[in-house]
Amino acid sequence: MQHHDIPKHVAIVLDGNGRWAERRGLSRSYGHYRGGHNIFTIAKEAKKLGVNQLTVFAFSTENWKRPQDEIDYLMTKPIEIFEDKKNDIDYQIKFVGRRDRVPDGMKQLIKDVEKRSEAFDESFVLYVALDYGAYEEIIHAIKHHDIKDEATLKASLMIPYDIDLLIRTGGELRLSNFMLLQSAYAELYFTKTPWPAFTVRSLKKAIKNYQKRIRKFGGL
After folding, report:
1. Is residue 69 annotated as part of the catalytic site, yes or no?
2. Residue 72 annotated as catalytic
3. CATH, residue 29
4. Which residue out of 63, 112, 162, 177 is catalytically annotated?
5. Which of 12, 24, 172, 219 is deepest in the core (most CB within 10 A)?
């Protein structure tokens, strides 16, 4: 892996947590628990490598269709995970997505984490997409902003940065309504490795693959 062509904005669809756990005879919830911890491992390495923004797809607007016990777990366990990791966080964390549907405990977590991480500069920011969907993001932008051109459209988005490298773990080959505008010219990288098993080495492999590509942006 080269050290001079690092993608500035990396986005990851954190897929395969439940399947990873089930293959090991464990509960799907445990897979989400391991996946939650892995966010901080990968964020630490991304920051070290020189990535400026890392966006992780933690919970989509469509994930409310899942079994209620799994939803309840996903809306409560992160409180414990963030508490465990709070002393390791040396970068800003921002949450994007709807906040009106998440329970009060999660709302308070979001408020506390964002407030606590404000002390750090924006050289590296971890964006957590929670109750997020690209369709809703676009509709919200149209309703609440005076969009005149591409620049004002981008500025109205929850995350106004184009994605350089978009990774999806877990083996599925789709974007699942994740940052559709920001990923217009993203390099896509799909891996069968489920998120809990996605390691620092896996991240470097994805970036190495990215560095082999020629980005033309419609040109020759």
Report:
1. no
2. no
3. 3.40.1180.10
4. 63
5. 12
